[in-house]
Model the fold of this input.
Amino acid sequence: MKIIDAHCDSILDVLHKRRHLGEPNHEGQADLVSLRKAGVKLQFFAVFIESAYKPERAVLRALEGIEVFRREVERHPHLVTLVTSATDLTTLETQEQLGALLTVEGGEALGGQLSMVGVLYRLGVRSLGLTWNQGNELADGVGVGENHRGLTEFGKTVIKEMNKLGMLVDLAHIAERGFWDALEVSERPVIVSHGNCQRLCSHPRNLTDGQLRALAEQDGCLGITFVPEFIDSETPCVDRLLDHIDHAVEVMGIDHVGFGSDFDGMDSRTPGLETAAALPYLLERLRGRGYTEEQLDKLAWGNWFRVLKQGLSPLYFGNDRNTIEQ
Done:
């Protein structure tokens, strides 16, 4: 069964010179070989900007991460191919390589300049997480606390530009006011690439039932994540992760839930889901919960595929075609 995974931080390992993506590493959680073997057909690769680089060096660090990622794709053409359009997404199904969707985690990468949205697009970025846990020029992240801002005017303009170009708006990490603002502004389905259900685990990164319903009503998608702290504060395990999937499906419907592992982005690992090799086991456990093959195909592939087909298609407003072509 084909799988789309909407978030991993494996590029950071390459940036820190620990490994190459095409070389299996027993300390890492995901690499090109293990992902393909596990059935992953499309992997979102995030460029994460470490806090030490914010704010002054955030743009340069993001560009460095993008360059490192592009070199990895060029280094391993037999293993991976870059996906930048809805057409690429469709042809991917007939190709042997793993598809890679390049994302950036944190609007600090824009340096407060709208033109940087186009620069990132030209470089192959097709999804932008508006915030990480801190605040930036676009909005506040969940780490700011109760007195957080919603979207700034700059943040609203950025979303509109992303809609025009064909870039996914990712609301993982954003504080709640910004979440609601983004749903009002975006004319395309937004995503939460990696997060879980607050009803089952009260971590601030998880979504309330109200947020889950609103995300589904906009035809967006939630990537259930394997981060232990987001699964359960005391006993994170596969059974508890399955509870999150069950709850998200119950609240959102089967068409709006997928996977967003966060491989190589977590300090600890959930027993049974330590690496990408465990993904077939996760599917088997979902079968044990009564999910049909049709439902599993939606969770593993179809829901993200639908959102990507919409989100990667440029959106033009009236006669305004002053945008960047591929």
User: Anything to note?
Assistant: Strands lie at 3-5, 40-48, 80-82, 98-105, 125-129, 168-170, 191-192, 221-224, 257-259. The mean pLDDT is 95.
